[in-house]
Amino acid sequence: xKHDLSQGKILxxxxxxxxxxxxxxxxxxxxxENILVTDKLGTxxxxxxxxxxxxxxxxxxxxxxxxxxxxxxxxxxxxxxxxLGACSSTTEKDCTYLVHNNYEYTKKMAAFALGQGARFVxxxxxxxxxxxxxxxxxxxxxxxxxxxNMYGYSKHLFDLHALRNGYADKIxxxxxxxxxxxxxxxxxxMVSMVFRAFNQIKETGGVKLFKSxxxxxxxxxxxxxxxxxxxxxxxxxxxxxxxxxNGLVNVGSGKARTWLDLVRPIFKAMxxxxxxxxxxxxxxxxxxxxxxxxxxxxxxxxxxGAQYLVPLEESVSDYVLNYLLPDKHLGE
Length: 332
Hints:
By secondary structure, the chain is of the alpha/beta class. It is 35% helix and 17% strand. The chain has a domain at 9-181 and 226-252 and 294-309: NAD(P)-binding Rossmann-like Domain (Rossmann fold, 3-Layer(aba) Sandwich), CATH 3.40.50.720. The chain has helices at 18-29, 61-70, 95-115, 150-164, 193-204, 229-241, 259-270, 283-286, 298-302, 312-324; strands at residues 9-13, 35-39, 57-60, 78-83, 119-125, 172-176, 178-180, 207-210, 223-224, 226-228, 247-251, 257-258, 276-279. The strands form four sheets. A seven-stranded parallel sheet has the order 3-2-1-4-5-6-11, sandwiched between helices. The protein has a two-stranded parallel ribbon with strand order 7-10. The protein starts with 8 loop residues before the first strand and ends in an 8-residue tail after the last helix.
């Protein structure tokens, strides 16, 4: 069964963010502009992510929240919700802030969606898996998962809430792995290693990577499941359209790659010889560092989402050549 995105309005929360703006760009590419975007633009340059995109309306999320509480009927035409709005900082220490933004607000948005029969797709995270000792299986039990940071726990709290309250199988929670790509310039310390490495190479001719503190991993050979934002967006929109895509779904490449695998295509795309230095890892990162992440994507494959995956080298090269070097945003 297929959910029709042309019926009613599409709400994208966190729409100026990395994945949110990529989803809007993907919707635009498919011909959809019946979109209400909400976010908190603040004082940085994330608004630039929205400039090339096409949508029906924008609202600051606090204004939307107040309007929704006052008269939810005015938003009765919303039939699809991509809920990406959240604090995405894995190093955020204000637990109360994370609970309010990532847990309580997601509960509110899910209740609104379910109340009017709208399709609800929300961002969970691979951070909910913690160190991976309990596996990274989106079809396994989640009660025993132990996130390594409060960000991951705030996401895990909602996954548990939906399960306890019996509606996890009526919504779709997307567990994003390490996403990189266009429109992340505003993320400050949370930018991807691709963005960081590109700028390091441009400024110094080389890249700094963290040393490994586990003997089973050589320096630079710690492994992550990396995924381009354009692929993540295409998969997310596909999952929204597929009414069989419910519960939690891992959105990753399904193949762990090293940090060296990630940065080498950057040097190649920039036409610069490789120069890599290994540096000490800050103590606060050491305590919550994931040495290995790899999405189990058998569910994603069954749902047809894996068709949008591309090789890591291709995705990195596209990002560098078509967005970072010319300083362009998605949709330009």
